[in-house]
Amino acid sequence: MTVFETRIGHTFANPELLSEALTHRSAVNQRGGGRRPKNRGAGSNERLEFIGDRVLGLLIAEWLFERYPDEQEGALGSRLAHLVSRDVLAGIAADLGLPDMLTVAGHEERIGIRHTANVLADALEALLGALYLDGGLDKARYLVRKGWQDNIGRQVAPPKDSKTALQEWVLARGMPLPVYEVVSAEGPSHAPDFVIAVHAGGCRAEGRAGNKRAAESAAAAVLLAELEKTSPGADRRKKS
Questions:
Q1: What is the dihedral sign for C-alpha 113, 115, 119, 125?
Q2: 109 a catalytic residue
């Protein structure tokens, strides 16, 4: 823990906050002997993830506002959406060594849950929530500016939202607009899990995320990649 605290730039006055941030809900259920707790996730990192998500959004928005003084809301929003996406968070969590720090149940350990993108992204948000509660916004800001530096530095132009990119792709070929449908919506209100399917160009793809909009974007990205790979002229573009 001491090495990890050095890595994130903060020694916790309340170590229980850090321990909670690094505890997956499966470990809490295991301690309860498999009994379903009255408050699902109580003692796990889910509550800290809730506040950490808001802290991350604020600090990334603040950073982008400073870094791109001439950009308007649309461009800034596209940058922010990418920087707080599940895959970006999971990569940063891995760089910080979070997988080795997580406490998970034995059966989840065996299937490798500590290395899954959703679990890592949630744990990183929980860590930011713990940093904010224990050390204030400056401590959370330090970790964000350290952990996200490479990702924000690679954003030469605002990334195009995958839903917009898919829509432009089908319209350019005279195809009907994409159609999205909710495949499933599960989980508690504070930690929902959406699976969204998108249909376009005679193909279908699914995306999963913690909110409907992000799941739609994930599905659009998968479908767009598939359409570009299988469309006429794809082989020519690869060779050129």
A1: positive
A2: no
Q: Which of 122, 125, 134, 216 is catalytic?
A: 125
CA distance 56 to 49: 10
Give the CA distances from residue 127 to residues 139, 160, 163, 201, in Å, rounded to whole numbers and listed in that order. Answer: 11, 29, 30, 41
CA atoms in the 13 A half-sphere facing the CB of 5:
14
pLDDT: which is higher, 185 or 155: 185
The Cα diameter of the chain in Å comes to 60
Q: How far apart are the first and last CA of the chain?
A: 51
Q: What are the pLDDT digits (tens) for 106-158? A: 887 788 888 888 899 999 999 999 999 999 999 999 999 999 999 998 888 88
Residue 7: what residue type? R
pTM: 0.71
138 is catalytic: no
Strands 203-209, 193-200: pairing is: antiparallel
Please state, for a pLDDT cut of 70, what percent of the chain lies above it. 89
Give the active site residue among 53, 122, 161, 216: 53
